[in-house]
Design brief:
The protein has an eight-stranded mixed β-sheet, sandwiched between helices. Strand 9 and strand 10 form a beta hairpin. The chain has a single domain (39-198, 241-490), classed as Alkaline Phosphatase, subunit A (3-Layer(aba) Sandwich). Helices cover 20% and strands 16% of the residues. The protein is globular, with a radius of gyration of 22 Å. It has twelve helices and 23 strands. The protein has helices at residues 2-17, 51-55, 84-88, 113-120, 128-131, 161-169, 184-193, 208-211, 243-250, 327-335, 360-374, 459-469; strands spanning 19-24, 27-32, 40-46, 97-98, 153-154, 171-173, 176-177, 199-203, 212-213, 216-217, 222-223, 235-238, 254-258, 265-266, 272-273, 277-279, 285-287, 324-326, 342-346, 383-389, 440-443, 451-453, 457-458. It is α/β, with parallel strands linked by helices.
């Protein structure tokens, strides 16, 4: 009897954490999955949103006449948001305030590494207008009389309606942080490598001291391996390992898909020109391509000249595109039954949610359009979608991040001039973290329904989920993936409990199909 029980236990373990086989380039590749339920991961990378900026009063919305209404489902759990007391007794020079749907053109705050640390002010969190708040000369005014205090504004479910509805029907986290403080380029690197240091300066410009600190990328720079990154900033290359390298080593299909990546023309020498653009609903016209694309900073995973894949059947595999694609290529692969195992989606800039470039409603249109299409794919039952943001954008959030990694460079400022705690001997500098709290949504048939995860997680928790699901190993070299909290608590793999949810891209409310 004991022997039979032992065999049964072994069979159950194999069934839950067993080996799956996938045909890759005609050859069976053996892949160990952390969860046999998830065969496809889609990571949607939006821009510049703190948790409070979108979820400060969740699940309570004001519901003014004429706006899309939001009424929470019975039993909706609370989040660590802004209470009336936290607003009325707030120590910042401007108190937190609600933004409505008429306030879509917002001044873009500055999430620059030392500015954000200064705003958090050793845990007092009382210097956001002075630290990250910014104004700009726009028409209409993007600060509407509040000056840099506009950084204290937040939306509710009458504007970010779709995002609140996804939270109601799937899972979210209210304890998810940027891995470090900083802007878009470091935020993307956090997501794909942890971050590791090894920033090699290819071309120095006046902004170099604002971009690299003791070998670590802390600010926005130009990518060394990208024809379309023509910003004139310092140009850097990353020399460490990223998750794309790990996926390639295991033969797992993957891709990073960016809006506007496909060239609109080529120079006589063959270099790419990315000239497509769109105008946001606020009237701001911006290029589609976002140059924060992280894999373009690594020689091993870059597609310098923005070459197209050889065919739709090669998307996800290694060819001249080297896993870097236009966003349209994702749908080419998905609709032809060739959905990669791991996909990163980057919207065109006008739909990425970043203030002064995009806005909440254009972002909503992208998210809803993407998720409506994903949910009708045959692969949906084995898919998990993580909606995340690259950094907080400098927007106010009332939660002090846990200090899990210290740094003492001349640009650190969290606990004093040149100080983010006291770094351990041998630790890489310029990685003060965790950084600000951000939203995280998990959309999947296997996600828990109307669930708020309070577990401590960060951007590298997504990286770790991918590593574990395909048995990739770790990045190494002091990557934060070693200490990342698990995201398994947002799933229930006993049965697919979350039903499909189709929303209207304009209102963010449920739609009939």
């Amino acid at each position: 009897m004991l022997k039979k029980r032992t065999v049964l236990i072994v069979l159950l373990v194999v069934g839950c954490f067993g080996i799956a086989y996938r045909e890759l380039n005609g050859q069976p590749a053996r892949v160990h999955r952390f969860s046999p339920r998830i065969k496809h991961v889609v990571v949607i990378v939006q821009e510049n949103v703190s948790f409070d900026h979108y979820f400060a009063t969740y699940p309570r919305a004001v519901n003014p006449t004429g706006d899309p209404a939001f009424v929470a489902r019975p039993g909706t759990p609370s989040v660590n948001g802004l209470t009336d007391g936290l607003i009325s007794s707030n120590l910042n020079s401007t108190k937190p305030f609600r933004l409505d749907r008429s306030r879509l053109l917002l001044c873009n705050p500055s999430p620059y590494y030392p500015f954000e640390q200064g705003a958090y002010h050793a845990g007092l969190l009382d210097r956001f207008p002075e630290g990250t708040g910014q104004t700009a000369n726009t028409n209409p005014p993007c600060e509407f009389g509040r000056g840099p205090g506009v950084v204290m504004g937040y939306y509710d479910g009458n504007t970010v309606t779709a995002i609140w509805n996804y939270a109601q029907n799937f899972a979210m986290s209210d304890n998810f942080f940027g891995t470090t403080f900083g802007q878009s380029a470091p935020g993307h690197i956090n997501l794909v490598s942890g971050p590791t240091p090894g920033t090699m300066v290819v071309k120095a410009a006046a902004d170099l001291d604002l971009a690299v600190a003791e070998g670590t990328l802390i600010g926005d720079t130009a990518a060394a391996f990208d024809d379309c990154d023509t910003t004139g900033r310092s140009q850097v290359a990353m020399t460490g390992t990223n998750v794309g390298d790990l996926l390639n080593a295991k033969g797992v299909t993957w891709g990073f898909f960016s809006g506007g990546f496909a060239p609109t023309s080529r120079n006589p020498d063959g270099t790419a020109v990315c000239g497509s653009s769109h105008t946001a609903t606020t009237g701001v016209s911006v290029p589609d391509y976002n140059t924060a694309a992280p894999f373009q900073r690594y020689a091993s995973t870059a597609n310098t000249h923005h070459l197209p894949p050889a065919s739709a059947s090669m998307i996800g595999y290694s060819d001249q595109a080297n896993h870097q694609y236009d966003l349209n290529n994702f749908w080419d692969a998905a609709t032809s039954g060739n959905l990669p195992a791991v996909s990163f989606l980057k919207p065109p800039n006008y739909q990425n949610g970043k203030a002064q470039v995009s806005n909440a409603l254009d972002e909503q249109a992208f998210l809803v359009g993407t998720l409506n299409r994903l949910q009708v794919l045959s692969e949906w039952q084995s898919t998990a979608v993580f909606i995340t943001w690259d950094d907080s954008g400098g927007w106010y959030d009332h939660v002090m991040p846990p200090l899990v990694n210290q740094s003492n460079t001349k640009v650190d400022a969290l606990t004093g001039p040149g100080a983010c705690g006291t770094a351990s001997p041998g630790a890489y500098q310029g990685r003060c973290g965790y950084g600000p709290r951000m939203p995280l949504l998990v959309i999947s048939p296997w996600a828990k329904v109307n669930f708020v995860d309070h577990s401590l997680t960060d951007q590298t928790s997504i990286l770790r989920f991918i590593e574990d699901n395909w048995d990739l190993g770790r990045i190494g070299d002091q990557s934060f993936d070693e200490r990342a909290g698990s995201l398994m608590n947002v799933f229930d793999f006993r049965w697919p409990g979350a039903r499909n949810l189709f929303l209207d891209p304009v209102t963010g409310q449920p739609s009939t199909r």
